[in-house]
């Protein structure tokens, strides 16, 4: 800005010099005109020729004077414009000097904001690049998993199906005795009740109870009691031959045997076989008033299922028969039909 002011000042000075030169030339031409007039008076003898020359010279001088005056007017106008511009520049320069600190502070703040924004954008770009790398890695892993599933789909499906069957099996098996649990017993009884209702064929149920089992636990401990339950459960399962028959843990020391398509005589025979098989285990039971070994009491019920009746009815009859076996001295088989004669 200072350099611009200096340039304007130099231009002004140059114009002043040119105006002074023009003024001097005008004075010189005026002097020459005066001299010519004197010469004209002293040379009147030359007549028209001299007058014509002087007139021409005078016209030339007048034209030159007019041109110089026009140039002078133009130069003065330019000089005035330059003076105004110089004044404006001086005011701007003075304003900048007076407010220089605030402008510099504002520029510094703007620069800091720009630097902070650039840093923030760089940080965001770095985070985006890291996120892109993670997404690319996860995409690659998913593609590998998908490729593996596609290539080994059958094997994976078979493995999951096997696990599903295993889970279903575990959900229906008693953890301690490894025979069917109460849930499986209820499902199977309901299924066979419905089927045999349509076919009008007999369904038999045997409920078994280990005699004096509380005394056994008190004498030998719960670990021995659990071992006794396992051995009795497996023995009952071995004594029942058909694949359609089901042996389940009914609860505590009680067990149940479901015999589809079996009449009372056949069910009684299976019950007696189970009783003898458990006795033959010869599991010591010194605290039992019945026998020196562990024994079973069994109740047998046989019905031809009816749609109008509930499966709970055969359970109730078998339970009543078991209760009668207990009353008759235990270690025996009782038939529900004997209760309703």
3D structure, described in words:
This protein is α+β, with helices and mostly antiparallel strands. The relative contact order is 0.07. It is rod-shaped and about 190 Å long. The model has no long low-confidence stretch (mean pLDDT 85). It has 2 domains: 2-98, Helix Hairpins; 176-340, Reverse transcriptase/Diguanylate cyclase domain (Alpha-Beta Plaits, 2-Layer Sandwich), CATH 3.30.70.270. The protein is built from 9 helices and 5 strands. It has a 5-stranded mixed beta sheet with strand order 2-3-1-4-5, with helices on both faces.
Question: What key attributes describe this structure?
Answer:
rod-shaped; Alpha-Beta Plaits; 341 residues; five-stranded mixed beta sheet; 2 domains; Helix Hairpins; 9 helices; alpha+beta
Q: Which secondary-structure class do the elements indicate?
A: alpha+beta
**First-to-last CA distance:** 131 Å
Helix content range: over 70%
Largest sheet: 5 strands, mixed
Under the CATH scheme, which class of the largest domain?
Answer: Alpha Beta
Radius of gyration: 65 Å
What is the fold-level CATH name, i.e. the topology of the largest domain? Alpha-Beta Plaits
The helix/strand order is HHHHHEHHEEHEHE
CATH homologous superfamily classification of the largest domain: Reverse transcriptase/Diguanylate cyclase domain
Share of residues in strands = 5-15%
Helix tally? 9
Choose one word for the global shape: rod-shaped
Low-confidence stretches: none
Q: In total, how many beta strands? A: 5
- Residue-averaged pLDDT, rounded? 85
The CATH architecture of the largest domain would be: 2-Layer Sandwich
Strand order of the largest sheet: 2-3-1-4-5
């Amino acid at each position: 800005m200072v350099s611009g002011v200096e340039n304007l000042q130099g231009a002004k000075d140059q114009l002043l010099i040119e105006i002074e030169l023009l003024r001097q030339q005008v004075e010189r031409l005026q002097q020459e005109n005066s001299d010519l007039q004197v010469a004209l008076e002293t040379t009147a003898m030359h007549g028209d020729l001299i007058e014509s020359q002087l007139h021409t010279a005078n016209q030339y001088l007048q034209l030159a004077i007019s041109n110089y005056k026009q140039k002078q007017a133009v130069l003065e106008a330019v000089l005035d414009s330059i003076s105004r511009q110089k004044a404006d520049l001086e005011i701007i320069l003075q304003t900048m000097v007076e407010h220089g600190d605030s402008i510099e502070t504002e520029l510094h703040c703007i620069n800091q904001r720009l630097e902070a924004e650039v840093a923030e954008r760089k940080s965001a770009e770095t985070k985006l690049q890291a996120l892109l790398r993670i997404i690319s890695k996860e995409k690659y892993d998913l593609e590998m998993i998908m490729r593996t599933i596609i290539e080994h789909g059958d094997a994976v499906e078979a493995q999951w199906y096997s696990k599903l069957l295993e889970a279903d099996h575990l959900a229906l098996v008693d953890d301690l005795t490894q025979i069917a649990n109460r849930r499986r017993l209820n499902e199977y009884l309901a299924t066979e009740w419905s089927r045999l209702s349509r076919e009008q064929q007999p369904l038999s149920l045997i409920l078994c109870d280990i005699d004096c089992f509380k005394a056994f636990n008190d004498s030998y401990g719960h670990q021995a009691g659990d071992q006794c339950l396992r051995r009795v459960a497996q023995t009952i399962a071995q004594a029942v031959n058909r694949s359609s028959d089901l042996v389940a843990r009914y609860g505590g020391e009680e067990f149940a045997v479901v015999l589809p398509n079996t009449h009372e005589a056949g069910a009684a025979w299976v019950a007696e076989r189970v009783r003898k098989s458990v006795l033959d285990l010869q599991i010591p039971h010194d605290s039992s008033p019945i026998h020196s070994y562990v024994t079973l009491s069994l109740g047998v019920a046989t019905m031809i299922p009816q749609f109008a009746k509930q499966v709970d009815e055969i359970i109730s009859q078998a339970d009543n028969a078991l209760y009668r076996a207990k009353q008759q001295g235990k270690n025996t088989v009782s038939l529900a039909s004997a209760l309703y004669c």
